[in-house]
Amino acid sequence: MMIHNPEIASLFNRYAILLDIDRANSFRVRAYRNAARTIENLPRDVGEMLAAGEDLSELPGIGKDLAHKIAAIVETGHFAELDDIEHRIPAALADLADVPGLGPKRVKQLYESLKIKSLADLAQAARAGKLRTLGGFGPKLEQTILKAAESRVGGEQRIRLAAAEQIAEPLVAYLKALRGVSKVIVAGSYRRRRETVGDLDILATAPTGAKAIDAFVRYDEVGSVLSRGTTRATVKLKSGLQVDLRVVKEESYGAALVYFTGSKAHNIALRLKGIKRRLKINEYGVFRKERWIAGRSEKEVYAEIGLPCIEPELRENNGEIEAAQSGTLPRLVTLEKIRGDLHTHTDASDGSGSIEDMARAAVARGYEYLAISDHAKHVGITHGLDARRLARQIAQIDRRNAGHRDLLLLKSAEVDILPDGKLSLDNAVLADLDLVIAAVHTGFTLNSETQTDRLIRAMDNPYVNIIAHPTGRLIGEREAYAVDMARLMQAAKERGVHLEVNGQPSRLDLSDTHCRMAKAMGLKLALATDAHNPESLGYMRYALDQARRGWIEAKDVLNTRRWPQLKKLLRR
Fold this sequence. Notes:
single chain; alpha/beta; DNA polymerase, domain 1; Beta Polymerase, domain 2; seven-stranded parallel β-sheet; 17 strands
């Protein structure tokens, strides 16, 4: 079985949770959590890295011992230490620790006091009012836990888009290599670039489907075959992800791609428009009565109902059809328009590349500028820069800029927003920077009014230019903190502050909905990677996905400008 980064990260996270429940050494717990985060955010598959002879112990947070364990997991598909601890502690307790309001310590309390071993047990106990009888649990927390537990029991399991990519890309390459197969594409929510994916819908073209289907169900990572025909099959991979393959002829490719890409609501709206023109639209083509009239391309299908082709990211029935009719569809921002990255880290704080490493990677991507935005020193921030270290870094960047014309390095810092809205660096230090990124890293449980006030007070500081990952969410791990986004955006616009669309696969923050809200308010956004190593500069495509789903155009983005124009936009 091939095993990918998200699965290895999940194994390490589960092990860390069970270690914590078992009251293991806190440093050991933290080591596995940090390793899981490093692996999950790697832009390359560790299996590929091992095959290339690369030393995993050189990755941040991965020493010789953990590198050896990762290699063993890749080779065997199992993590022996996790198997051992699951013989002593119910494995399902690891799932409980992810429920909002819980954590390893509370899970252990629930297990020991109420014998709760699963999400179903948790929901039942919460409904019965048993949680509030324990110390540290009250009626409000009990209701929060109940709501979260009920939503997870029997609910659809979704994985992050980046994790889905690591599974989809090798499968697509495998299918493309088959004789007779000419096109292969992943449709569905994956192609719409939603931030999480429930399953994969793959579309392929071939004169006949039987051989492609036969090869598909024999793919090494298939765990079970759920259904199989001559032109379609559904399998469940060993990772647990369901994959559907449909094989169509070339003449139906465009129609099938429209059918399997759009949301249900979008597709219904298209079919209704077709009916008004006495047309039938399905996955095989566009038909007038029984006569096939179009379907080779998506453009053909949309043209038959009087519309321009709508970008996949917009196909959610959120006004895109009306915009297409009126000629007001946005010209979505593209990667080619991005001139630089405004949020990156080096090994001076918690990254793993030097300033020169990051600069070379930016040049390779054709960037004109790159902001070095290492963390400022604060509680919980690893190796954060104090005023003296930041001054040394500023001098280093100045020397690099003086000696090179290939790239402009921008002097920046990611500065913590303290609970009272002040920043973790003095203004005298911030004045020496080209731009200042402010972010919340603590105090996630404040109520909406308090949290919003805190962020606005930070924006009152005249040196703040960008608010990073503005809702603080971690997809599948931590809910967004409470914040009045409309009020925050209005305050940002009034102060000349901008919000970030963070491309870290675990963040994708702002959401697509918030991107569209910002556009409606005339607030420009910064698309950034929050890269902690050179390869992670590739996360720009995920920031771009969020922006495109939010109808964002190049004119709505700060870093589509050349530096002189950007400098004016950043000026307070």
